[in-house]
Amino acid sequence: MPARLGEILDLMARVERVGRTSVTVSVTATAEEFKTGRRPPAIAGRFEIVTVDDAVRPVAIA
């Protein structure tokens, strides 16, 4: 269910995996409905973040 204008989003991020050159993070969000107080899921996503050098090649996480 998408969030509507005026609702409050509550985001939660969790590190799923840490590799040599990357980190995987999952993010979920609920949107609080003012009239009912319900907090149904609004969005979910998974992000792979890779550390790169100036030539855009993966490098080890410092």
From TrEMBL:
Keywords for this protein: Hydrolase
| Domain Thioesterase positions | 2-33
According to the lineage, what is the superkingdom? Answer: Bacteria
An MF annotation (GO) of this entry: thiolester hydrolase activity
Can you name this protein? Acyl-CoA hydrolase
On whether Hydrolase is a keyword of this UniProt record, the answer is: yes
